[in-house]
Amino acid sequence: MNPHFEPGDERFKDPHGHSRRQFLKSGLCGGAALLATPYVGPLSCGDGSLSATPHSQSTPAARVALTTGNDRTDMTFQALRQFQTEIAAGIGNKQVVIKPNNVSTDVPLCATHAGNLEAILEFLKSIGKARNVMIAESGAGGSTLDGFANYGYDRVAARYGARLVELDKTETEVVGCLDERDMRPHPTRVARLLMDPNVYVISATKLKTHDTVVATLSLKNIVMGAPIKAPVNGANRSDKRLVHGGGVWALNYNLAALAPRLHPHLAVIDGYEGMEGNGPVRGSRVDHRVCIVSPDWLAADRVGIELMGIDFANVGYLNYCAQYSGLGVADLDRIEILGPALAEHIVKYRMPDSIDSQLRWRQPIRG
User: Fold this and answer.
1) Which of 106, 132, 168, 305 is the most buried (most CB within 10 A)?
2) Structural domains counted in the chain
3) Residues spanned by the domain of 173
4) What's the N-to-C CA distance of the chain in angstroms?
């Protein structure tokens, strides 16, 4: 059970010396930022159910590149080229960090493919932004560096002079994550690198179903990769479990509440082969052969959900994000697809065995 801390309790310290006062000031800013953004109304239909389309028109329309084919690396490169001017301007003089998805270090189907990273690095080279690039991750289980080696990232990184970074060994900041079992914020250590305003974050991930929040795409890759695994008082601890918050209500909330500070500036979603069923690790292969790229991560995730044949109204954290202006576009009518028609490439992914319990987030928590 997580300990409770009362105001002024000096036990409230993380390994870097943050106090409770600092936590309350900065740790809750993820949720505070979400709650402080202009509210545009729930995604509701006349019958009270959630709709996939927000009512606000205040956010500019988004563009999402969609490519298909038989060459994963070329598909990714061609999708990125659609935004080369915008991406180059967005990077400017910032440090580029590519965040792959290594939820497991020895299950290739669940992880970002080395060919996807190669395409991103080759693209960055083509626009003069490949110097001093980091490939950074905190694997959910096992050694992050072992995962890099298992998946061939070390060879790709060496070819382009990129640095492999274990986020668990980098500087951290404490944020607050809600736990639905006690309805309190709990101090969670996250990698400061992914929140640095001088860093341009690229989320390189896959189309996958998920055993708790229906689907995992570009946003979840960043938010769940940020909490670190490191000792506390001499005992090993993974703070990723704190984001899970004890259940589907808190996990969906925490993902959305952290999104204003922990999100990608560029979403690169590899759907050459997706994962269906009991993802994000134990699912089955889907031969899909698509790739999605956009500087609007929410629009990219929205298109990804559609391509997987999933009802967007069932994905709690993305619906929460869509209700607030400034995070991106989730309305398909306001997303321009650069590439083939979206409807021609939808593949209905098999849902996880736990899908019924996952959808409880749509109902109020009852004691």
Assistant:
1) 305
2) 1
3) 60-361
4) 18
Q: Which amino acid, residue 293?
A: V
Residue 262 lies in a domain: yes
Q: What angle do CA 349, 350, 352 make, to 5 degrees?
A: 125
Residue 53: phi, psi to the nearest 5?
A: -120, 120
Tokens of 82: 């659609």
Q: Looking at the domain assignment, is residue 38 inside a domain?
A: no
Residue 232 is encoded by which pair of tokens?
């506390």
- Taking the C-alpha atoms of 30, 171, 194 and 8 in order, what is their torsion angle to the nearest 10 degrees? 0
Residues 32-46 pLDDT 10s: 444 333 323 333 333
Give the separation between CA 316 and CA 42, rounded to whole angstroms: 12
Q: pLDDT tens digits for 246-286? A: 999 999 999 999 999 999 999 999 999 999 999 999 999 99
Beta-strand relationship, 95-100 and 199-210: parallel
Residues 283, 286: Cα–Cα separation, whole Å: 9
CB 352 within 8 A of CB 279: yes
Is 317 part of any domain? yes
Give the amino acid at 256.
Answer: A
Instruction: State the CB neighbour count (10 A cutoff) for residue 185.
Output: 22
Answer whether residue 17 is part of any domain.
Answer: no
CA-to-CA distance for 112 and 102, rounded, in angstroms?
Answer: 7
Residue indicated by tokens 């060919």? 115
DSSP string for residues in 270-293? EEEEEEESSTTTS-EEEEEEEEEE
- Is residue 84 a contact partner of residue 295, using CB atoms and an 8 Å limit? no
Here the CATH number for the domain that contains residue 65 is 3.40.50.11440
DSSP code for 180: T
Phi, psi angles (nearest 5°) of residue 85? -65, -45
